[in-house]
Amino acid sequence: MAKFRKRPVVIEADRYQENKFVRGMCNEVSCLRFNQNPHVHTIHNGQIVNLEAGDWVIAEPDGEHFYPCKPDIFEATYEAVEE
To answer: Which of 23, 37, 60, 66 has the most CB atoms around its CB within 10 Å?
Structure first.
C-alpha cells in the first residue's frame, strides 16, 4: 500500500455557537421548518448534518459548499494561520 501526505491547505471556517448564524449554515425558512435544528447541507449527496454548539463549519475548496467538523477533530487537524 502506498503512503500519502495531506497537502497543506489554508481553509476558511467559522465556529458555530447557539443562536449564531455562521457562513454555510442553512438559513432558508422552508428548510428551518422542515428541520428545526441548525444544520449544513454537504456537497456529498446533499446530506443534512445537524450542528452542535462548538462545531466548526468549513468551506469546501469551491467556496460554495460546507461541511461540519467536531472541535476535537478540528484541533487535531488544523492550526491557526497568522495573517
So the answer is: 66
- CA distances (Å), 60 to each of 12, 14, 65, 69, in order? 9, 13, 5, 12
The pTM of the full predicted model, rounded to 2 decimals, is 0.72
**Cα–Cα dist 68/14, whole Å:** 10
The C-alpha angle with vertex 64 and arms to 59 and 70, in degrees rounded to 5, equals 25
Identify each DSSP E strand in the chain by its residue range. Answer: 13-15, 39-41, 48-50, 56-59, 66-69
Residue pair 58/13 in contact (Cβ under 8 Å)? The answer is yes
Determine contact, residues 57/64, Cβ cutoff 8 Å. Answer: no
For 23-35, write each residue's pLDDT tens digit: 888 876 666 666 6
